[in-house]
Write a structure and sequence with these properties.
Helicase, Ruva Protein, domain 3; two-stranded antiparallel ribbon; 12 helices; Rossmann fold; elongated; 285 residues; single chain; seven-stranded mixed beta sheet; 9 strands; alpha/beta
Length: 285
């Protein structure tokens, strides 16, 4: 079969199967060969790799992955796409298609069964409405992953790599940067998709750390403090934490901030990941 990166082939496939795009699945299929090659290059896919693809759609990127990787496992939630994928990927014998919700898939078991538990590379053109749960699910489960290369809304990519004091900096920035080093590999305009989304996109690669760049005595509490700090980002850090229902008084928070040589009127958006880890340890003590 001809490559689906040719828009005409994608249009013919839509007609052949009478396929209707499902808004609930956030379906926007990539149709640009240049961008597809950039994604494969950014993910550093080689013939030694097993790739887990989330949301293959028609199999446009899957075709490129099959030619670059040793093996591809593609997890697709929309059962209407399974016969289409069986057709568009029929030329490749190194792909497994799974009809499942990635948020409910036992990824650890999948990697154990398919790759003897060795790290895999994750590649995806993610639906915008569910980008954060999928990425955080992959990171928080500590499954063996080398890197995650995903197409996301440009605004989300900017948030993932933002630093303290910037408008894009927030809880997502800190959560991603605790587990991985983010790198924006390409910006992608709406005309590279069928149907066209209303916003620009970006390809971002997350290189996972062997261990987090900061140590903290209670990871869960640190992220509770971080979330509270950004829920009301215009308020001072101490007010945000107290209003967030966490078990710390203003006096305890002020004492911890003074110990860290920080102003007691500082906002959460000014603290780095390292400072949030230190604040957590001081408050727990």
């Amino acid at each position: 079969m001809e490559k689906l990166s040719n828009p005409q082939v994608t249009i013919e496939t839509i007609k052949k199967y009478g396929f209707s795009f499902q808004k609930k699945f956030g379906q926007n299929f990539l149709i640009d060969e240049h961008v597809l090659n950039k994604i494969i290059a950014a993910a550093k896919v080689t013939k030694d790799d097993m790739v887990l693809e989330v949301g293959p759609g028609f199999g446009t990127m899957t075709q490129y992955l099959c030619e670059s990787a040793r093996e591809v496992v593609a997890v697709e939630i929309d059962k209407e796409l399974i016969p289409v994928l069986n057709d568009t990927l029929s030329d490749y014998d190194n792909v497994t298609i799974i009809n499942d919700d990635i948020l409910k898939t036992d990824i650890g078991k999948l990697i154990e069964d398919k790759n003897e538990g060795k790290p895999v590379k994750v590649v995806a053109n993610l639906p915008y409405y569910i980008t954060t749960p999928i990425i955080m699910g992959l990171l928080e489960k500590h499954v063996p992953v080398d890197n995650i290369t995903v197409m996301v809304q440009k605004e989300v990519a900017l948030r993932m790599q933002a630093g303290p004091g910037t408008k894009d900096y927030g809880a997502l920035s800190l959560a991603v940067q605790y587990y991985a080093k983010p790198y924006i590999a390409a910006n992608v305009p709406p005309n590279c998709f069928i149907p066209r989304p209303n916003v620009g996109s970006a390809v971002i690669r997350l290189d996972l750390f062997d261990k987090p760049p900061v140590s903290v005595s209670d990871e869960k509490m640190m992220f509770s403090i971080i979330r509270a700090s950004f829920n009301q980002r215009r308020k001072t850090l101490q007010n945000s934490i107290v209003n967030g229902g966490l078990p710390f008084s203003k006096e305890q928070i002020n004492a911890a901030l003074i110990k860290m040589d920080l102003s007691t009127s500082i906002r959460g958006e000014a603290l780095s990941l390292e400072q949030f880890a230190k604040l957590t340890d001081l408050l727990i003590k």
